[in-house]
Amino acid sequence: MTAPIHVRSEIGKLKTVLLKRPGEEIENFTPEMMERLLFDDIPFLPEAQKEHDAFADILRDNGAEVLYLENLSAEAIDAGNVKDAFLEEILTESGYAAGTTHDALKEYLMSMSTLDMVDKIMSGVRKNEIDFVPSDLVSAAEDREYPFFMDPMPNLYFTRDPAASIGDGLTINRMTFDARHRESLFMETIIKYHPRFADKGLHVWRDRYHTTRLEGGDELVLSDHVLAIGVSQRTSADAIQDVARSLFDPANDSEYDTIIAIEIPHNHAMMHLDTVFTMINHDQFTVHPGILGEGGKIDTWTMHPANNEDGFTIEHNQDLEGVLKKELGLSELDLIPTGDGDPIIAGREQWNDGSNTLAIAPGVVVTYNRNYVSNELLRKHGLKVIDTLSSELSRGRGGPRCMSMPLVREDL
Ligand SMILES: NC(=[NH2+])NCCC[C@H](N)C(=O)O
Q: Which Pfam families does the entry mention (predicted)?
């Protein structure tokens, strides 16, 4: 059997991928909660599910095995016999380490089948669904009107972010905003207890117990020894240093000796590197023109292992094309601008994840159908573009790359 996680590029043929089918969590909130939950609108659930099923079908039809986060989580909890411990952890991270509300929530969730419990935790627990009136100070003094005991986790269908495969291992991420903090606990549980992953010698290059922030949308596996990581709204430079130290440590036996840190604007529309830059073929990339300054400049820092105190060297550069050519050993490079360079179209299509392409083989990409200008341009550049439905899914501000966590890709 091949390793349960094996990803040495962004473009190798996709063999196994982790998705999360959108559930009640994507509609279980009010407009007042949207901003905090990192959504710009409230999707229509049945349509979102249809769109997501169509996306999964495309991946399956092209030879990928599709696994679902909700199922793996429940299977892992059962296999490890850790329902109690899992609940304690998620309750603690939801603000209930002890007390009567903790006890009531625990009793309620414990009474469910493991899969129902997982679905419930993901979709949120409202106050009116438990026969219990909290008497603690928080409920009395702070939370009187708030309708939830446990918030929904609508961003779970962006499986890309809570963890990221690198080589034969992964990072399990400490995420930036409260709205997403708890998400990576599912992946940690899967890696620890699911028979498919547990005790298989997987490297966890960096775990979720850090104060510095890292999200998978910023982590791009450019080759079997080069990563690109965004310095972004969601990923801090100090977290990238951690990743470098871990991957460059000879004791950890990783193949990675190069990290290109790329600084992008810190805002909601471009929250991760993969919303503005993706690799789609050996020598082709999408790039949102909005991240490039005058003369196409952008700040990058290339890190290599070194025998100094930091454990690495850094080299500053502003020529992304030159840096990519050098580190990937390419003589030519095709950087394809989102929206064909038209400022209105580029802005619009980037907002709807026009740069967020998922390569499922070299030169074969899945994109949102609504970004028709960028899609057409990709076709003109020789790519095979499979476009997928996107009216509802795009309201969560993530595209095909965000919605997928590759676990196994064929080597190039
Ligand atoms: N890899 C990505 N670009 N993911 C997009 C995540 C979108 C999500 N609403 C968030 O703000 O976190």
A: ADI
Of 131-140, 170-179, 212-221, 262-271, least confident by mean pLDDT is: 131-140
Ligand 1 atom with the smallest distance to the CA of 179 is 12
Regarding pTM above 0.95, the answer is: yes
Cα-based distances in Å from 322 to 120, 260, 300: 49, 12, 11
Instruction: Check if the interface score ipTM surpasses 0.95.
Output: yes
Contacts of 59 (CB under 8 A, 6+ apart): 14, 17, 19, 66, 360, 366, 404
**Ligand 1 centroid, distance to 357 Cα (angstroms):** 13
Give the nearest ligand 1 atom to 161 CA: 1
Q: Extract the tokens encoding 8.
A: 């040495």
User: Is residue 145 annotated as part of the catalytic site, yes or no?
Assistant: no
Residue of 25, 218, 272, 367 to test ligand 1 pocket, by largest number of atoms within 8 Å of CB: 272
Handedness of CA 30, 34, 40, 46 (dihedral sign): negative
C-alpha of residue 398 to centroid of ligand 1, in Å? 5
Q: Is the CB of 272 under 6 A from ligand 1?
A: yes
Question: Which domains occur in the chain, in start order?
Answer: 60-64+155-409 (3.75.10.10)
Task: Dump strand ranges (E) for 253-404.
Answer: 258-263, 277-281, 284-287, 300-305, 312-317, 334-337, 358-361, 364-368, 384-388
Q: Can you give the pLDDT at residue 139?
A: 78
Q: Is 193 helix (H, G, I), strand (E, B) or coil?
A: helix
Q: Which atom of ligand 1 is nearest to the CA of 180?
A: 12
The CA angle 166-168-174, to the nearest 5 degrees, is 45
Q: What is the pLDDT of residues 40-64, one digit of tens each?
A: 999 999 999 999 999 999 999 999 9
Residue 114 tokens read as: 């493991």
Q: Look at the alpha carbons of 75, 80, 85, 89 in this order and tell me if their dihedral is positive or negative.
A: negative
Question: Residues 156, 222, 280, 402: which is the catalytic one?
Answer: 402
Please give the Cα distance from 158 to 154 (Å, whole number).
9
